[in-house]
C-alpha cells in the first residue's frame, strides 16, 4: 500500500513517540526519580506556595492569663518558569520518494534518525538536570588568537555542535554561532576562525545562555536566585552546602551522616535519595572495603542498581559533577511540564518542507522545568576526593 505524507506522519507519531517518551523518562536520572506536574500551570508558568513558617499563636499561659494572639501558617509564592527544549530531524526528499510505496521501508529509513533523536534528548536533558540553568558547557581557559580553544573540559562538547563563546557574567560575544570542527583532547576543541578567550568566558550551545532547564547544582546552592526568589533576601531559600573551602577530603560515613542530619536540622524534610559521580561512588566502595563492611546494592527501575546507604539508594550518574554528593528530599522536587515530548504539529502536519531544500523536517519538543518547594531540604556535600 502506498504511503502518503499523512501516513508517514502517523508512523512518526504512533511508532516512535511512546517509546521515545518512555526511554527518556526512564533513562534520565532526575526524570526517573521525580514526579511530574502538568496540572498546576497558570499561563505559561507554575506558581508554588512555599510553606516558610508555622503558626506562632502558641504560648504557655498562667491560670487566668490572656490567651496568645492568633497566628497563621506563613507562605510565600514563587514562580517556576517553563523552559523549551527542541530536537529536529531531517529526511531527504529522495528518501521519502523511495519509501512511499512501503511504510516499512520508511520505518527502516528513519529508524537511525529517531534513535539519534532519543539519544540526543536524553544526553542534553541529563546534562541540564545536573547544571545550574546557565547553559555553560565548559569554562574557557586562555586562548590567544588561535583556532584551538582551551577549556576546562570538553565533556559536553562534540564535533558538529554550534556553540557560542561568551563572557559568562555579561553575555558579551567572543564568538557567536561557531561550529565545533574537532575535539582533539579533553581540554581543547577547534573552530574555523581564530578566537581569543579568557577564564571569564564560557562555551554554550548556540542561543542557550541562561534559558536552559534548571539543574541540581542550581537548586542545591545557597546563593543562586531561582524561581523569582533570592536567598540573600529569604534565608529559608538557601540549600545546605557543606564544602571544605575547595580542599578535597576523603568520603567518610560521618560526613555523609552530617549531610543527612543537616537536612533534618534545617528543614521539615529528610533525605530520600543520594546522587553522585562515578568517582565518588568508587571512593565510597573503597571506604566500605577498607572498613570490611558488606556492600549492599539496591535494584532500581530499568534493571539498574545502586549502592545502599542506610536504606537509601546511592545513585551514580555519568553527568554528575565531580567531587560532590547530593542528598535530596525528592518530596520537594518536581518536574513541572506543560508538555511531555511531542511532535510539533499545530499546522496539521509533523513532516514539513524545509525551505530551499529537497527535504522534510520534523521537530520534537518538550516544555518543562525542574522546580523545588523546599530548598533547605536539599543538601550537597562538596570537595570530596574521587577514586
Number of strands: 22
Structural class: alpha+beta
How would the global form be characterised? globular
Mean pLDDT: 88
Order of helices and strands: HHEEEEEHHEEEEEEEHEHEHEEEEEEEE
Rounded to an integer in angstroms, the radius of gyration calculated over CA atoms is 24 Å
- Work out the helicity level: 10-25%
| Estimated share of beta-strand residues | 25-35%
User: Based on the structure, what is the oligomeric state of the protein chains?
Assistant: single chain
Describe the protein's architecture and organization.
InterPro entries: AKO59007-like, SU10_MCP. Pfam families: SU10_MCP. This is 2,3-dihydro-2,3-dihydroxybenzoate dehydrogenase. This protein is α+β, with helices and mostly antiparallel strands and 387 residues long. It folds into 3 domains: 5-55 and 77-129 and 336-369, 2-Layer Sandwich (Major capsid protein gp5 fold), CATH 3.30.2400; 139-205; 216-332 and 373-381, hypothetical protein PF0899 domain (hypothetical protein PF0899 fold), CATH 3.30.2320.10. It contains 7 helices and 22 strands. The protein has helices at 5-27, 29-33, 93-99, 103-129, 216-219, 253-266, 278-290; strands at residues 35-37, 41-42, 45-53, 74-80, 83-92, 136-139, 143-150, 162-167, 173-179, 182-185, 188-197, 201-205, 240-242, 273-276, 297-299, 305-309, 312-316, 325-328, 333-343, 352-353, 359-372, 379-381. The protein has a 7-stranded mixed beta sheet with strand order 13-22-18-14-17-16-15. Strands 1, 5, 19, 20 and 21 form a 5-stranded mixed beta sheet that branches. A hairpin with a 2-residue loop joins strand 2 (41-42) and strand 3. Helix 3 packs across helix 4. The radius of gyration is 24 Å and the shape is globular.
